[in-house]
Amino acid sequence: MIRPLIAVAATVLLASSAFAAKPAPKAAALVCPVTGDKIASVKAAAGHSSYKGKTYYFCCAGCKPEFDKTPQKFVKNTSAPKKPMHMM
Fold it and tell me: Among 34, 73, 77, 83, fewest CB within 10 Å belongs to which?
């Protein structure tokens, strides 16, 4: 009686591991499109805007309105860091 229970338990255990959740892929680094500064996480971002189906995150509250005025000016700035505009 114990052997069939062990066999069933082992089968269930092996089957459940095949359907276990796989770890999520690492998210791409977040970069402010206005300054080029890296942003630690979505929660750390000071705001976000969508442009042409993509969401952009900002390092500070001053970058969002600047981006919203002319987003096409900033969409290519996400690859190279620039001098921060918000530090005075």
Answer: 83
